[in-house]
Structures are given as structure tokens and as C-alpha cells.
Amino acid sequence: MPQQRVVLKNCGVIDPRRIETYLERDGFKALEKVRREMTPEQVTDEIKASGLRGRGGAGFPTGIKWEGARKAPGDEKYVICNADEGEVGTFKDRYILERDPFTLIEAIAIAGYGIGAKQGYIYLRAEYHHLFDLLQNAINQAQKSGYLDGFNIEIREGAGAYVCGEESALMDSIEGKRGESRYRPPFPTTSGLWGKPTIINNVETLMNIPQIILNGAGWFSQMGTERSKGTKVFSVSGDVENPGVYELVLGSPLRELVEELALAKNVKMIQIGGATGRILPYEKIDTPLAFEAVLGAGAVTVYDESRDVIDIVYRTMEFLAEESCGKCTPCRQGTEVMVEILEKFHQGEGSERDIRNLEDLSRVMMLCSLCGLGQAAPNAVMDTLQYFKDAYESRVVV
Amino acid sequence: MSEKGILTQPGGRESLILRLKEAQNKFGYVPQEVMAELAQSLGIPINEVYGVASFYSFLSVRPLGRNVIRICRSLPCYLKGAQTIIQTVEKELGIKPGETTPDGRFSFQFTNCIGLCDRAPAMMINHDAHVELTPEKIAQILQTYR
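Above: the input entities. Below: the C-alpha cells describing the complete assembly.
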């Protein structure tokens, strides 16, 4: 399947500092259309019919989220754009924000209309502070041109915490608190920011919205697989000749991305979805990139034959242990204990019992952790135990 | 707050992180007195303020140097030789990660993924991104920070 520019349609084409260049490319036409011709219900129905699913990793159907917030009682509702791209190996949202802030702003305003919100937030990670002025300038220009009448968009900056990319921790951070995951239910669509109905959408998810509105759900849902509609933007890094951002129709094989576009050679394994993502051996390179198989937020880190599996998993777990918010025990303690065990293998001093402990611990963390961080933290361990067990067994002291 | 004039007038509870960042920018860290004032003016316990200040990696409850170097040690940068960059910075500055130079010019820390993996290895100094680092580039870059 060829590369397809839907999300990245304007990237590198418009001037991100000048709204006129965006208007020349159908900019804000979708917003005008929903305000003039569509009811909020028709908006959320259209997004639902498109089959669009969240691009931040979890893949929740966007239209269902919007519908939930639209139907939730209350006058005060919020739209949050999650620009806290912290997953290891992900930089697609940075790429998008740098090149096309206007589509995002239009999409946030459409979301606001769809759910009945008057306030939108862009939660921007502290590491992307250099994008603040560009984004604010785009908001100001949209305001001056009258596109945000009756709707306000504010940028809120994070302060450095991976877990704040998790939606409930993100809301706590906007509220000025430690970014800790919340118990659910209630879900944000009924009780989110300050207890009000809220939708939280990833940058890339929102980038799809204006074109779905203009071209229709049918156009969008033609692309992709049965359960993964549209395109996906991937961030490719690691042992490749051409690292960078690529947009592919969902369902494209991993091989196309890794070997044909990024020009990887001698691939040993691929981590898809960052630290909480899945690890596939080279034999699985024809796996389709789709929610049905592997996807996450689209971070693709490639490791060649020279890399040590245990070293990679150990470093992945070190990261997760550091970034665990600490609220729930399975994640806080589980990631710490996993680091300790993996360190033993790293030093060539593992045992059969350690392998069993890793397996047991993985199950408990998946089942009992409060949020996606802890639930997905064991992925790298479980996958490598499945595909690269010899890497562990060769470091068992007999 | 305003009577003591350390920071601008705080908004509601949600302004806490913003205020802490303001202090961070002004003093290079969040001093105890600021935390006490914020707690009082927002009507929340000081331990809650400390809890927030110590949670985020861009806030520090201990003094930092005028310039904060954050070298990415996540996997994409690690694969591209972040280790060598770390060693070069250590050698150039004569300090270890987590330390500050005696003249207060630099603090040096590790950071997790900063979203510059396509141009690894990367680091940030204050809010500036530096990419495609080589040992040769380091001395040059450091010189531009006083």
C-alpha cells in the first residue's frame, strides 16, 4: 500500500505561521460546515460512522467518546488535545505541530461544537516548550479571523512527566496537581476535568477530523482494515538509515515501513509502541500495522542484529520504573522488582526462578494496575520471553 | 503572595504548577519559602505543594545551575551513542549526572525521551534542543551558555 497523506496533508505545504496559507487549502471549511449545516448530533454521528479510533495508543473509538460527552448532562464541558507525546520513540506529534498547527485548532473547535464545549485546552509537554509560540500564534490568528468566536483555546504546559500522557493523569496536571492516574469509572466523558464532561484526544486523532467532515465518513472508512480505518503516522527510529515520520494506510505491513521506507538492514527485532509497546522478532515483519495486530501510538524502534535483547528490555523497564506515578502498588512495585530481576540477567546472573517470577509478575501487573502504564509495562518482558527466551536462558546460572 | 512580592498573584488551585514554574525560572529552583507562601495563598497544605514540586522533572526543590543540561538516555538515543555524549559532557564539565558545576553555570541531568529520536542523540539545554550530537559538537555548544 502506498504512503498516503491525510493527517500530514498540509505538513511542509503551508506556512505554519500564516493562516492565509492554510485557508488556501480548505482551511476552516469543515468548521464552517459544521456550524452552518450540521447539528452536534450529526457531527458525533459522522465521526462515529468514520470508524476513527484514538491515535495515542489506546485506540478507543473517537465518535463514541464524543457522543458520550455530548449526551452527558451539564453546560460546562471541555475538549482537551493531548500533546504530551512522551512515549519513547514517538515524535510524530512534534512533527505535526511544527508544520500544521491550524488543522489541529480547527479540529478542536469542531470537537467543541460537537460535544457542546466552550473551552478547549492543548496540553503541551514541557519538552516541547519551543513549540509554544508557534501554537499560540496560530490560535491568535484563528481568533482574529473570527473562527473561534464563542470558543476559547488555551495552551497548558506540562512540567515533565511521562504519565501525564495518560488521560486521567493529564487532567490532574491541568488542575495543578501531581499527575496521577484516576480510578475509573467515572469516565472523563461524564466526569473529567474539574468533574465536568471532557474528551481527551491525541493530536493525530484530531488532525483527521476536518477531512472526515469535508469528505464524509464513507471516504475515510474506505481506507484501512475492518477495525482500523484511515491512516497512521509512524515515528521510526533506531537502527535504520532513514529515521523519520511516515504516514501509511492502516493495515500496511510492518516490512514496508521498516525495510522499504526507513531502510533498515539486519533487523533483529522491532519495538512498536514505545516502552509500553510490543516487541516483534524479524520473522514477524509481515505483521500488519493495525489495531487488530500491533500499533500503539506508532513509535517504531528498530534493533539490528548487534543489539542485546536483555539490554533493551532492561532499559525499557528502567524507564517505566522511573516514570510510574506511584499511586498503585502493582505498577510502582512491579516495575521496580522487574528492574531488579532484569539487572540480574543483564549481569549474567539470572535463574529459572527469576524467569517464573517475571511471568507471574507480568500477569499481576496487567490485571491489577490502575492505568495503561502499569498494565502495559510487562509487554517488553512478556514478548521477549516468548520470542527470545534463549536470551534469558543463556544467562541463567546453573 | 503579592504582599511579599515573590511571585505574581496566584489564580486558583489550578495555577499551582504555573506558579512553581515561575519560581523555577526566577530562582533556578523552587525555594522552601515560595512553597510556604503558595500553600498559604492557595489554602492548601505545604506537603501538597511539595508533592507537586517534587513530582515533575522540570521543577526542582534543590538549587540548580544557571543552565540545565538534560541528555536523553532513552533507547533511540542510546542506540545512537548517547553514552559517549554523556561521557563527553562529564569530562568537559568535570561533574557527574545530578551535579552542578562549582561556578553554578551548569547542572547536568538525564532525561527520558524528548521526542527528537529521528535526530538522535539529542539533549536539551534549558528549553533549547540540540540534536545529532557528536563529542566534537559538545564543547562548542557548551561555550554558548554563560
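Note for the figure: The mean pLDDT of chain B is 92.
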